[in-house]
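sorry to bug you again but im stuck and you know this stuff better than me. what follows is a protein written twice so to speak, once as letters and once as structure tokens for the fold. mainly i need to know what kind of three dimensional shape the backbone takes. anything you notice is useful, everything is just below:
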Amino acid sequence: MDASMLTMLDQMLLLLHAALIVFNLTGWIWRRTRRAHLLVIGLTFGSWIGLGAWYGWGYCPMTDWHWHVKAALGETGLPASYVKYYADAMTGRSWNAVLVDAWVVGLALMALVFSVRLNWRDWRQQRRGIATATRCPDRARKRGGT
């Protein structure tokens, strides 16, 4: 693969990985994305723990693929953590890897707890028949509901 294709792949993986991180941290906020968020953050933890049992705790296939691209572009000395790499690059300093990992896991756990809690609440409300249309009949009428 030529350098321009690798550079384009590097940039694409950067955007995709950043979008995944943002979604993992915020996808629980909106009702429409909560189920998808629960699935995606569950897969993230599954990778970190499940695949991590074989490849090293915190393993992320996307980071692995990205690091292969960066290595092909000639980058060396890449850290295990994608977040550490970009925190270092954006701030110009070398962050403590343990501290970065602690922040990443802590924030991801908080997002997981929020997602589980809100998905559970949404499921219970739906099961009880307490939908938004029932609580806000004016909004439902405007949309053509009952």
Observations:
- The two ends are 58 Å apart (CA to CA).
